[in-house]
Amino acid sequence: MTIRSAVPSVDNDTPRSDVRLDIAREPATRAELLIFTVYFLCIVAIEVLTAVARPEIIGISSATAVIVLLTHFIVIDPLSESEDKASSRDMASLLLPALALLPLMRLLSIALPTRDIPERYWFFVVGIPMLVGAYGLARLLGLSLRDVGVVPVLNRTQLLIAASGAPLAVIAYLMIQPETSYSSGRWWEIVIAAFGLALFSGVLEELIFRGVLQPIAERAFGPLGIASSTVVFTATYLGEKSPLLLAFMMLVGCYFALATYRTRSIVGVVAAHVIFVVGFLVVMPNV
Amino acid sequence: MTSLFSESSRSAIGENALSVIGTQLGATVVLLTIGLLTGRELLRAGNRRLDRSARAIDVALVPLLLASGYVIVVRMIDILGIV
Questions:
Q1: Bigger pLDDT: A64 vs A179
Q2: What is the rounded CA–CA span in Å between residue B52 and residue A140?
Q3: Beta carbons within 8 Å of A222's beta carbon, 6+ residues apart
Q4: pLDDT tens, B28-68?
Q5: What is the pLDDT of residues A23-35, one digit of tens each?
Q6: Rounded Cα–Cα distance for residues B35 and B49 (Å)
Q7: pLDDT at A96 over 80
Q8: pLDDT at res. A135
Q9: A243 at interface of B, judged by CB pairs closer than 8 A
Q10: How many CB atoms lie within 10 A of CB A254?
Q11: What are the domain boundaries of chain B?
C-alpha cells in the first residue's frame, strides 16, 4: 500500500513534502484516538480558560500547547523520507501542526497590543500572521487547493449553501443584538471592517477548521473526526459567555461541517460564513 | 463575536493595556519565539532527516515573527512619536 508519495525535490536544500489527502493511509489506532481526544480536550480547555481565566494564564497555556503539539509532531516525524517509518499514526499525526494553530491564534489574539488601534483593524493584526501560518501548514502537509476543498465550481448546491449565510445572519442578530464598532463610522471604515471580517473571520476560519482540520480528522478518525473538529470550532466561541450564541454557533458549525463533507468543497461554506459574519456584525446593525 | 476575537478576548486585550499583564504576555510570546527558533536551528543542524519535520515549527514561528515585527513597528512609532 502506498502510504506516502515523496516528490523528488528540485532544490536539495529545500525538500518539500507531498502528503496529499487522497493518498491511502491507514486509520488511527485506539491509542491514537485516546491521545488525540486528550489534545482536542486541551484545546477546548484553553478556550474555557479564555472565558474564565486571567490573560497571562491563557497565554502560558496556549504557548505550552503549541510547544507540546509541535514537539509531538517532530518526535513522530511523519514526513520522514524513510518509507518504513510510515505507519497508522501518519494521518492522525498530520493533525498536530493543524491543532497547534488554534492555541497560537488565541495567544496572538490576546497578546498583540491591539487596544490602541480601532477594533476594525484588530483582524488584520492577528489575521495576517494566522493566514501566513495556515498557508505554511498547507505547504508543510503538501496540500493542494483541491485538498483543502477550494474547488472552483459554482453549482446550484454551492450557491444555496452560500445564500444560507443571509438567514443565519438575521437569526443571529435577532437572538443577540451585538454592540460592535464595525457598523459605525465613515463609509470607508465600515468597508475596512467588513473586509477584515470577511477575510479573517469568514475565509481564515473556514480554511483552518473545514479546509485543513476537518478532512485530516475525518480520514484519521472517521465521523468522530468531523465531530471533534466541530467541537473545537464551537469551543472558540466559548469566550462569548452567551449560551445562546454558543448553541447557535454549534449548529452553524455542524451545518458547515456537513455541507463541506457532502460537497467536498469549502467554497459554499466560505461564502456563507462571509455573508453570515458581515451580515451579523456590519449590515444588520444598520438596518 | 468571531473565533479570533470573542467577548473574553476583548476583555483580555483591555487588561493587556495594564503594563504588568502586557509585559507577561509579551514575555510569553518572546520566550515561545526564541524557543521555537532555537529548536528549529538545533534540528536543522542535527539530522538531515529531521529537517522536513522541523519545518513544522515554521507553522507557528512565522506568524510569531510577523507578530513580533508588528510589535516592534508599533513601539518605534510610539517612541519616535510619528503618529
A1: A64
A2: 8
A3: A27
A4: 899 999 999 999 888 888 777 777 777 889 999 999 999 88
A5: 445 667 788 888 9
A6: 21
A7: yes
A8: 92
A9: no
A10: 16
A11: 29-83
Angstrom distance (rounded) from CA B5 to CA A239: 8
CB contact under 8 A, A101 and B57: no
What confidence tens digit (pLDDT) does each residue in A51-70 have? 888 888 989 999 999 999 99
- Compute the distance between CA of residue A256 and CA of residue A186 in angstroms, rounded to an integer: 33
Q: What is the mean pLDDT of residues A222-245?
A: 89
Contacts of B25 in chain A (CB under 8 A): 55-56, 59, 110-111
DSSP symbols for B17-57: TSHHHHHHHHHHHHHHHHHHHHHHHHHHHS-TTHHHHHTHH
Interface test with B, best of A68, A74, A175, A278 (most B CBs within 10 A): A74
- What pTM value is reported for the model? 0.86
The candidate with the shortest Cα–Cα distance to A97, out of A181, A22, A19, is A19
Q: Report how far residue A200's alpha carbon sits from residue A193's, in angstroms, rounded to the nearest whole number.
A: 10
| Whether B46 contacts chain A with CB within 8 A | no
**How remote is the C-alpha of B24 from its chain's centroid?**
12
Q: Residue A134, Cα to own-chain centre: how many angstroms? A: 9
Q: Are A180 and B28 an interchain contact pair (Cβ–Cβ within 8 Å)?
A: no
Q: Nearest chain A Cα to B65, which residue?
A: A129
Q: Is A105 on the interface with B (CB under 8 A)?
A: yes
